[in-house]
Fold:
Amino acid sequence: MNYPPLWLRILLWPLSWIYSGVTRVRRNWYERGFLSSFPLPGIVISIGNIEAGGTGKSPMTLELCRTLLAEGARPVILTRGYKSGLSAKESAVLLGEKVLLQAENTLSFVADEARMQAAALETIPIVLGSDRHNAAKRYLKHFPEPTHWILDDGFQHQRIRRDLDVVLLDAKRPFDNGHCLPAGLLREGKRSLKKADWIIFTRADGQDPKAELIAELNELKVPYSAVNFISGEPHPIKDGQPHWSEIGAWTLALGVAKPDRVESGISRFNLKVKHRVTFADHETFDKKSLALCLETSDALLTTEKDYWREKAYFDRLDKPVYLIPLSISWQKGASFPQILEVLTQNLPKISPDISKT
Structure:
């Protein structure tokens, strides 16, 4: 991670303290009822973090939904749809590659992560809207109630009451540089973790979290698990393309929060990457830069999330396009079936009109 120079971080520290204080007050006001939160019919599970991006919320959301499907549940993903192009009051519903419920005014929108999730989970509706409560209400006017609502990136979204909070931490750098935005990447301080029901360390790579961190979690009485993300063999978006091992020179195009993690994940394939082009998370690719790179390479490699943000562009390319699939390996502690069994055993006793405290 490239941080601003130390002198700039020192100048930003006061802003970080203010930001941290505001987030604590906001959470406290929701807990005390000074700010209104709203229940939804069914069980609400949040998958979130305390860092601005890069902990693997999307693959963990997919994993949770697949677990629920296997148990016969009917989940719905409720997501903000960051940089989707929808206005603040609009919402939409995706199912597979179809728009099941169009936005009120915006006919075309991006929503890379939501489209990726919809394509991967063809039977699970994805509800998008920055006002997730209103988006959920609109969904319920048109479709049956789900058994579960999955709040993607929901730990800070306290306007919707949840039954379970699952929080993801990067095992290698769980609290970034220790500072909240803008001097660091934390959205909230460590003390917010006491509100988590379960913590999952991602990108553990077979290593246990540091002993002092585990001691803190034990003091907070928050159980934890650890997973690793495994990059699979590159696969083409179209039939009839060469096997990835037959490709000579690659252009690697990434628009994710931590591109170095992607590169580390595919290093075992010994790909001959001639051009490496990176963009900010959720950012639209510079087509001219990619075109120049592709002139002297044989194929383009990107992530599934990047593909769904730029699907029409990638589908039109003359050069073969390959995607990097991602799978999850549970390395320590309970996996989702066991986590759900533990955390939901008391839910029938919880009134849907009472927020979690």
Remarks:
- The longest strand covers residues 224-231.
- The two ends are 35 Å apart (CA to CA).
- The chain has ten helices and 15 strands.
